[in-house]
Amino acid sequence: MLAYIFRRILYAIPILIGVNLITFFLFFVVNSPDDMARMHLGDKRVTPEAIEQWKIERGYDKPLVINGNSDGVNKFTDTIFFENSVKLFMFDFGAADDGRDISHDISQRMLPSLAIAIPVFVIGLLANITFALIVAFFRATYVDVWGVFICVVIMSISGLFYIIGGQYLVGKVLHLVPISGFEDGIDGIKFIILPVLISIFAGIGSGVRWYRTVFLEEIGKDYVRTARAKGLPENLVLFKHVLKNGLIPILTGAVVILPLLFMGSLITESFFGIPGLGSYVIDAINSQDFAIVRAMVFLGSVLYIIGLILTDISYTMVDPRVRLQ
Amino acid sequence: MMSYRFVMGLILSTLVIAVGSYFYGIAQYDALPVVLWTDSLIYVLVVAISSFIIYASSKEHLRDPWRQVFQHRYGMIALAILLIYVVIGLLDSVHFRLPAENQSQDVTQETVYSGEVLSLLDVVITPIREQEEKTYSAPFATHLFSKETIEHADGTRTREYPRLKYGGAHLEDPHADWVDDVTSNTLTGAGYGLAVWFAVSLLIIVLIALSRKQSIGSTFSDVVSGKSHTPWRAVLITLLILAVLVCIAIVLAPKYHILGTDKVGQDVLYQSLKSIRTGLVIGTLTTLIMLPFAVMLGIMAGYLKGWVDDVVQYLYTTLSSIPGILLIAASVLMMQVYMANNPDLFETDSERTDIKLFFLCVILGITSWTGLCRMLRGETLKLREVDYVQASQAFGVSQIKIMWQHIQPNVMHIILIAIVLDFSGLVLAEAVLSYIGVGVDPTMHSWGNLINGARLEMAREPMVWWSLVAALIFMFILVLAANLFSDAVRDAFDPRIRKQ
Questions:
Q1: Helix/strand/coil (H/E/C) assignment for every residue in B427-492
Q2: CB-CB under 8 Å, B480 with A26
Q3: Does the complex come out with an ipTM higher than 0.90?
């Protein structure tokens, strides 16, 4: 098992290098640092000195890949590529455009993101499974037909509507919870309830529909027929056999997004003023802070790859038929 | 048996009408045709779809699943609604520049064209395009949304809601006449709608009767009792609702702002209609752009195996490991920097916004081909072991020919299902991306921009809700129709579901 995990981690390295090359290409080759400086400083007739100054402040005045002026190893280390891309591997994200340390910001903002993402994940999963089981229990009846139709309707409404409508109804008309904001500790719960509920509701359409097909696929299998043939009542078949076996694809499918929970949700966080990583990205995009976007792209892919590895491991743990080879 | 040719014939004739109106428009207005980037891709798409329809009409195995789609009640209702959107989108994809107004009378001189690029849709709905108010006004309002100081003839000044320039301007006394006028106009519109609907349904029934070589009376009773193979009754009821709504809108729109006006006084209905093209472009062109790569790479990886497989797998694993929204945001940011530094590349404003839309499609395509590619690779891996592929290998058929003639037709259903499933997700994504600031150009009409603009006014008291609601409803109807249609397509094409 350990050897398997080790091998999977080794596989991840070329992928991360690829991600790194893509971001390097996007951020430094498509547009030269001069272009970025001009964009940032705003005016078209900005002086060359100001551009130089801007580049020196951020270390973008070095050559892209190979520095001809240095000797030995420095030929490769004293470059934009090494300073800004290779260092990401050591999780050294450098400083944002306003001089703040990105790594520090990220560690500060992870907790608020998790405060929203974990309840959404757990309650959402439970709600989806429950509703999907109900619909599967009443399969091929009007409950099923209308359940699926309602799912499609929920899926067809833009997520922006749920957020804006929810804020208007619950926050502004009913005055139940504050519209936006965040607070640490127990007092913060009143800020969390609304975004969590809205996120769960927005995801319930596609979730229930997907899990319904998983359960229906299980119901069609031979062991279910055997269970029925030996006289087991339908609800026992459903809740004991089908639920257990259906959970395998559902849970392993959910594992892949576990690490990504750290990243938070861009839209929800920015609408509700939660100081998490999602709103961090949005702020960075709006202020065109490329260092932060670059760091978050790298962090996001690292977390995704961890999720993939966890998925494979969880497969081998729940399903004895899967071999490690 | 006839339902495939019949429905496809209807769709094709819609396209022919669109092409015809293009040439008519050019000739009528002595205009300079403008073909934007996305326009040309839309034309490619239209040609591709039409030739696919003609090609498929002679192949039984391709016609059969479509026939099943046409027998699906929700699928057909959704198709009818989608076609309305498509027609509006196509009208909006025919662009030209009209001759400038103060033309010199000298015939020998070249005509000077105005810088404004118009579309056929703009011409069709000229009244609501040009009737701009000063600022916000509620749907069907006769007065502005905010108070202004008005100077009367006798020199006194009062703060009151001024009358609108266009909305209800024909009314003598808005407070007394408004209800009567709106009701009578609505009834007139509904009457026109009924008349149009009668004509259209009569035409459809006659055509069905002709194609089935049946008497009109028995066709009529088949349709009314819902016994026809294609659920024509449901389609006709949908058309009735649509016709009445559209005709009411046509009658009322020049007299009132049905959906209100926005901050700069532009009609919200106009903006919502113009946004249809943006939504359709993002939903379809993205797939069109990524499709060749996904199909070629997926099939090659699965069939050739070896190093090709390794490279393709590496490519899509790497790309898909970057969270989609971050990759999109990073790419769009870089594109914005590039365009800000090279402003001379574009002749007109609409060319610039159009290139931006095109690149957004490319970027969305780059992030979305990986899923389809992975599925195609998996399916090809299975197919290459099938007997007939092994047999052609033994006969020495070239690899390219095997991939094209034996593998590609057998993965077609996966491609088709992916196209229709992606569509609704992409339309919804546009709104979110525009909200984040990495979507279409802020000056372009799109539902995302409408929502984004309206969001800033939520805090007003009383609330400005109409642009938000209009954008959401237009988007909801399109996405719901697309979802229902894609379900029908999936049910008909997915062999796993068909078996049951």
A1: HHHHHHHHHHCCCCCCCCCCHHHHHHHHHCCCCCCCCCCHHHHHHHHHHHHHHHHHHHHHHHHHHH
A2: no
A3: no
